[in-house]
Amino acid sequence: MPTVSVIIPYYKGEKFLDAAIRSVLNQTFSDWELIVVDDGSPDNGVGIAEQHAREQPKVTVVRMPNGGVSCARNVGVTHARPGSEYLLFLDQDDELETSALDTMVAGLGAYPEAGAAYFSFTVIDDEGQQLEGPVSAKRCVPTATAPGWRMLPPDLAGTPLVALFTHHDAVPTVTLFRRHLFERTGGWDENFRHAFEDQDMLWQCAVLAPVVYLPVPVARKRDHLSNNVKQSLTPGFRQLANKWWQGKHLTPETRTRVRLAMAQEALVTARLIFHEAGQSFRSKDFSLSGKLVFRAARKLALHVVRILSASRGTQDIPRA
């Protein structure tokens, strides 16, 4: 049985799919399988995947009616061979570094108590040229002293809930999940249609087991105009916040822990924005500074509302 099941959900990405598949084929780590899930894509990407499957028996192609990326990822898991230890969900337009699976398996293996590990990445354009990187995770936690927050050092792997809630850098391409932990979650939430499904998935894991961050670049993540991140994120963010504040899928103890972390996130974010406003003020950009102060005040109000709501145990969705 393979150690790692790599799953690529595919929809309208013919231009980049071949490079994504080849990045798996070229791994120095050889004990893997690749499942490419064609999410009812109208282009010829499935033909590219099927050609690879004919040449490499470790590649499997699954066809399904269009159901969205979360559904495609879940279908991919159901086709993974029993006994694989890890799951990696590679986005169709990203590419793994040649030693990625070696690095990720060894990295997560060094923390047997952890359920998932995420890593750094570089950013490339449509032509594969590097735009930025390596991108390191921003992991902020609150402090009692000024400026009211601090960044966790790279050599500290453990990542608390508040840090995962404040910044989301654990994109699927660079996040390795232990399969037995993933199967204890609800899987990818197929109700998310406006992004944030990856953040939800990570949080599902983080309430069950520790999540660690290792600052080693393992992938090249593509930034182009068709990315979902270019779309409006407001509906997805609101959906995520509502789901996790209500916490209907959580035990009472875990729901309390999550709500306190969400309250801390609002406080940390408010302090970060106040810090940015101060920088804008010192550079005499008073208009931007004023807008940032207003945003920070709203976040601070949200922190207070969340703290009060959490202490009362109310199910109401707090809004600043």
CATH superfamily of the largest domain: Spore Coat Polysaccharide Biosynthesis Protein SpsA, Chain A
Q: Tell me the CATH topology of the largest domain.
A: Spore Coat Polysaccharide Biosynthesis Protein SpsA, Chain A
What structural class is derived from the secondary structure elements?
alpha/beta
The CATH first-level class of the largest domain comes to: Alpha Beta
- Number of helical segments? 10
- Helix fraction by DSSP (H/I, runs of at least 4): 40-55%
Tell me the distance between the termini.
51 Å
Question: What is the number of E strands?
Answer: 11
Taking all Cα atoms into account, the compactness measure Rg is 20 Å
Name given to the CATH architecture of the largest domain? Alpha-Beta Complex
Morphology call: globular
Give the total of domains. 2
Q: β content, as a range?
A: 15-25%
Description:
There is one protein chain. Strand 1 (4-10), helix 1 and strand 2 (32-39) form a beta-alpha-beta unit. Helix 9 packs antiparallel against helix 10. With 320 residues, the chain is α/β, with parallel strands linked by helices. Helices cover 42% and strands 20% of the residues. Strands 1, 2, 3, 4, 5, 6, 7, 10 and 11 form a 9-stranded mixed beta sheet that branches. A two-stranded antiparallel ribbon has the order 8-9. It is built from 10 helices and 11 strands. The mean pLDDT is 91. The protein has helices spanning 14-25, 45-55, 69-78, 100-109, 161-166, 179-182, 197-206, 234-246, 252-282, 286-312; strands at 4-10, 32-39, 59-64, 86-89, 95-96, 116-124, 130-135, 140-142, 149-151, 175-178, 211-222. The radius of gyration is 20 Å and the shape is globular. It has 2 domains: 4-232, Spore Coat Polysaccharide Biosynthesis Protein SpsA, Chain A (Alpha-Beta Complex), CATH 3.90.550; 250-312.
